[in-house]
Amino acid sequence: MCPLFFLALCSGGLNSRFLLEGAGALVGPTIGGYFWRLSNRSLVQAIDQKDHIFFQRIAKNRIDASLQSPTGTVPDYYGALELALVTLVYRLMVFFLTRRKDWVVAPI
User: What's the whole-model pTM score?
Assistant: First the structure.
């Protein structure tokens, strides 16, 4: 039997186990982030400054949400449309090349 299941059964059933795991998943990153920021004080200011510049650039280049619809989405700042086109071209190339029996295409 899994040690976690044994612990859960001994401590009052699966409901308490899931509650404790959920609490740990919510509290763990908060406490871990706090201790990481304490132990890496020299890096925190530089990281926060770069994050601030990055988020300003994203906000400046964000497209107006009123210009898109569920069927006609506008590509985002990171170039999702270009990535989709590259993937489409690759899939078409693989499709046409695999129709020929003497070609073998390696995956990306």
Answer: 0.44
